[in-house]
Amino acid sequence: MSTFEFSFNNDNVKSVKKRIGLLTSGGDSSGMNAAVRSIVRVAISQGCEAYAIYEGYEGLVQGGNMIKKFEWSDVRGYLSIGGTLIRTVRCQSFREHKGRQQAAYNLIKNGIDALIVCGGDGTLTGADTLRSEWPGLLKELVQTGKLTEEEVTPHTYLTIVGIVCSIDNDMALTDITIGAVTSLHRICEAVDCISSTAFSHSRAFVIEVMGRHCGWLALMAAISSGADYVFIPERPPEAGKWKEEMLDAIEQQREAGKRNTIIIVAEGAIDDNLEHIKADDIRKLLVEAKIDTRVTTLGHIQRGGRPCAYDRNLATLQGVEAVEAVLRATPDTPSPMISVRENKFVCEPLMKAVKLTHQVAEAIAEKNFRRAMELRDPEFSAGYEAYLSTTFMKNKAPSQANHSLKIGIIHIGAPAGGMNAATRAAVRVAINHGHKPIAIYNGFSGLLNENVRELSWLDVDDWASKGGSELGTTKTEADSLELIACQLQKQGINALLLIGGFEAYSSLIKLSKARDKYPAFCIPMVCIPATISNNVPGTEFSLGSDTSLNAIVDGCDVIKQSASASRRRVFVVEVHGGNCGYLAVMAGLAVGATNIYAPEYGLSLKILQEDVNHLVRRFGADKKRTSSGRLILRNESVSSTYTTDVIANIMQTEGQGLYDSRTSILGHIQQGGSPSPMDRIRAKTFAVKCVHFLEKHAHFSDPSEKTKLPEVYTKDPESVAVIGIIGAKIVCTPVSELELETEFDKRKSKKAWWLNVKPLVELLSKWGYSDNEPIEKF
């Protein structure tokens, strides 16, 4: 998710621009309700009316009370609920011309000529079919006397906008679909639990996940959990060989001392002869090899449950874009699908996306597996290669051009989810490339105390799912430069990978600036940003920020439940972030906060008074016994005057007895336990590319030349960098360039793509409540 533009008018709009219908259809996915909430509230704020169509196309055909006008309060509480509250069913009648004619009739009778449809490729195809037939359907309805010319004249064309909701992430022309990441959360939670019992009994588990024609869930689950083998439709193994290859790989792992084996198989897995690979067939093979094996089919547990933070925000932002697309539409505009391309929201031709999606299955059926991979998002192939390089030991000797490096790996700063996953990936890629990964324990103080050792393949085997820092980390920066240089030289470390937050970034700058004085620092060095605050320059997302965001959302869901049970209560929730408001803003969007107090926006008595006035109006307008709790998120560093307690006391004192207030300081639970799948995937991607970066910039001196320089020597500014996500790309940016965009006194980047999100948070929580609403005393 990246920057987006959004404008709205806080004044009540009297004229109705459009009546917009919305429906959810096909398989449900977590995040659908967040999209519904966003569409309804943004539509109302833009002067439109929103109509929920219950049970998808079935409700469109039946009409009557299946089509209901939604008010602002009708979507209260939708954010944290999985599935779809406006329901979905498979509708056979809509597939027939008569059913679509009846659907058109019901839309005209309700004055609706714009539809936002949430679902998969079948849902979107049905909507576009209705649009293409619309003029003919209206003509038929007039000819049969069911509608008059006066009724149909204002609605001569039908606007369709599609939002893709699919746990399989199988739609072309978009990098991610609503529900896929939440489903991945469910899978990883299950695999993490299964791994512990597999280890206890030295068993193998074959875990089947969803994905008939798309292996995204299976592949990303394998990457996230550190699975030992994966079967996906797009990269089928060779028929007649895969059984032997799998058994050899697992036997090699067992001989090396590994006790447990996890194999993930997509339900649509095949070999290159298109023969179905079944989970039970894999189990039988392992049992024949004398490995105690069980099969677990996760089934529909992958669909349900509360949406994760990512899916809530993705669905909310796509809902905004969908309403904007409706208002921009013309009769000549092809039906758009709201897509995420290169971390930006764009409109892609809906039917083009559907056609390309179908081409994947066609390519697989034609055994054109290379084409099938090309049709997936760009990260899919890269993810598969990264998985291979961190799962199967090659015992590869370094090439003459590559040489062998001793790569020091050190954690600096506070713990963050993904640190261990990044270390695991870096260690394994380094070993496969013939290098020696050297663990530096307890930060730079550990280096000075010579607390270092070489890590083996199995040392890091179970680190993918571990939170915190297995190496140990401190917030001490690189200060004793002479001693650090001495130890790097003594240990023979000629490449350095720093994993951490702003302290790691600052240390990297200090080491690079000391190169003229200490040749030991004339080695390639790279930093993987790992901090829940997401404040390191050079990346839009740091490791740990997604894990922390989910921890905050989980905590706020519980707090909001408590506040709602008490009916009239406001919680002021304090979150981490230092001088960076990323966590407060994005968590506020995900939990439906009334407001967010963050350093980038400032906090004054005027702002507090405006929020008190809003809360008084809002609680006063609620009917008795129907109020729900409200949350205000406060960044820990927003103000030394208006502390969390002070704000809560102001809210309660000025509340006119309509509500009370409480505080909640989430504290270190925000560092999270097990890292989120998103952080695990990013960790592996970062680490693989970092090893390649160190290799690229490791300029070995010619041994034939007499020189006092160390074996690896480089002063190239490009050889000291921070890796990060910029748009859709993973890039390594030299620290010499990043210094210009750094606010060192505030320990953060000058760039913040998420700044424009706060107005939307306020819109979605405040807009529908008028200053003129009567206050009901109780």
UniProtKB/TrEMBL annotation:
<dbReference type="GO" id="GO:0006002">
    <property type="term" value="P:fructose 6-phosphate metabolic process"/>
</dbReference>
<feature type="binding site" description="in other chain">
    <location>
        <begin position="668"/>
        <end position="671"/>
    </location>
    <ligand>
        <name>beta-D-fructose 2,6-bisphosphate</name>
    </ligand>
</feature>
<feature type="binding site">
    <location>
        <position position="294"/>
    </location>
    <ligand>
        <name>substrate</name>
    </ligand>
</feature>
<keyword id="KW-0067">ATP-binding</keyword>
<dbReference type="InterPro" id="IPR035966">
    <property type="entry name" value="PKF_sf"/>
</dbReference>
<dbReference type="GO" id="GO:0005945">
    <property type="term" value="C:6-phosphofructokinase complex"/>
</dbReference>
<keyword id="KW-0460">Magnesium</keyword>
<dbReference type="GO" id="GO:0046872">
    <property type="term" value="F:metal ion binding"/>
</dbReference>
<feature type="region of interest" description="N-terminal catalytic PFK domain 1">
    <location>
        <begin position="1"/>
        <end position="392"/>
    </location>
</feature>
<feature type="domain" description="Phosphofructokinase">
    <location>
        <begin position="19"/>
        <end position="326"/>
    </location>
</feature>
<keyword id="KW-0021">Allosteric enzyme</keyword>
<feature type="binding site">
    <location>
        <position position="203"/>
    </location>
    <ligand>
        <name>substrate</name>
    </ligand>
</feature>
<dbReference type="GO" id="GO:0042802">
    <property type="term" value="F:identical protein binding"/>
</dbReference>
<dbReference type="InterPro" id="IPR000023">
    <property type="entry name" value="Phosphofructokinase_dom"/>
</dbReference>
<comment type="similarity">
    <text>Belongs to the phosphofructokinase type A (PFKA) family. ATP-dependent PFK group I subfamily. Eukaryotic two domain clade 'E' sub-subfamily.</text>
</comment>
<keyword id="KW-0808">Transferase</keyword>
<dbReference type="GO" id="GO:0061621">
    <property type="term" value="P:canonical glycolysis"/>
</dbReference>
<feature type="binding site" description="in other chain">
    <location>
        <position position="747"/>
    </location>
    <ligand>
        <name>beta-D-fructose 2,6-bisphosphate</name>
    </ligand>
</feature>
<comment type="subunit">
    <text>Homotetramer.</text>
</comment>
<keyword id="KW-0479">Metal-binding</keyword>
<keyword id="KW-0963">Cytoplasm</keyword>
<feature type="binding site" description="in other chain">
    <location>
        <begin position="210"/>
        <end position="212"/>
    </location>
    <ligand>
        <name>substrate</name>
    </ligand>
</feature>
<dbReference type="GO" id="GO:0016208">
    <property type="term" value="F:AMP binding"/>
</dbReference>
<dbReference type="GO" id="GO:0030388">
    <property type="term" value="P:fructose 1,6-bisphosphate metabolic process"/>
</dbReference>
<dbReference type="GO" id="GO:0048029">
    <property type="term" value="F:monosaccharide binding"/>
</dbReference>
<dbReference type="InterPro" id="IPR009161">
    <property type="entry name" value="6-Pfructokinase_euk"/>
</dbReference>
<feature type="binding site" description="in other chain">
    <location>
        <position position="475"/>
    </location>
    <ligand>
        <name>beta-D-fructose 2,6-bisphosphate</name>
    </ligand>
</feature>
<feature type="binding site" description="in other chain">
    <location>
        <begin position="166"/>
        <end position="168"/>
    </location>
    <ligand>
        <name>substrate</name>
    </ligand>
</feature>
<feature type="binding site" description="in other chain">
    <location>
        <position position="636"/>
    </location>
    <ligand>
        <name>beta-D-fructose 2,6-bisphosphate</name>
    </ligand>
</feature>
<dbReference type="InterPro" id="IPR015912">
    <property type="entry name" value="Phosphofructokinase_CS"/>
</dbReference>
<protein>
    <recommendedName>
        <fullName>ATP-dependent 6-phosphofructokinase</fullName>
        <ecNumber>2.7.1.11</ecNumber>
    </recommendedName>
</protein>
<feature type="binding site" description="in other chain">
    <location>
        <begin position="531"/>
        <end position="535"/>
    </location>
    <ligand>
        <name>beta-D-fructose 2,6-bisphosphate</name>
    </ligand>
</feature>
<feature type="region of interest" description="C-terminal regulatory PFK domain 2">
    <location>
        <begin position="406"/>
        <end position="778"/>
    </location>
</feature>
<dbReference type="GO" id="GO:0005739">
    <property type="term" value="C:mitochondrion"/>
</dbReference>
<feature type="domain" description="Phosphofructokinase">
    <location>
        <begin position="406"/>
        <end position="694"/>
    </location>
</feature>
<comment type="function">
    <text>Catalyzes the phosphorylation of D-fructose 6-phosphate to fructose 1,6-bisphosphate by ATP, the first committing step of glycolysis.</text>
</comment>
<feature type="binding site">
    <location>
        <position position="27"/>
    </location>
    <ligand>
        <name>ATP</name>
    </ligand>
</feature>
<feature type="active site" description="Proton acceptor">
    <location>
        <position position="168"/>
    </location>
</feature>
<dbReference type="InterPro" id="IPR022953">
    <property type="entry name" value="ATP_PFK"/>
</dbReference>
<feature type="binding site">
    <location>
        <position position="569"/>
    </location>
    <ligand>
        <name>beta-D-fructose 2,6-bisphosphate</name>
    </ligand>
</feature>
<feature type="binding site">
    <location>
        <begin position="90"/>
        <end position="91"/>
    </location>
    <ligand>
        <name>ATP</name>
    </ligand>
</feature>
<feature type="binding site">
    <location>
        <begin position="120"/>
        <end position="123"/>
    </location>
    <ligand>
        <name>ATP</name>
    </ligand>
</feature>
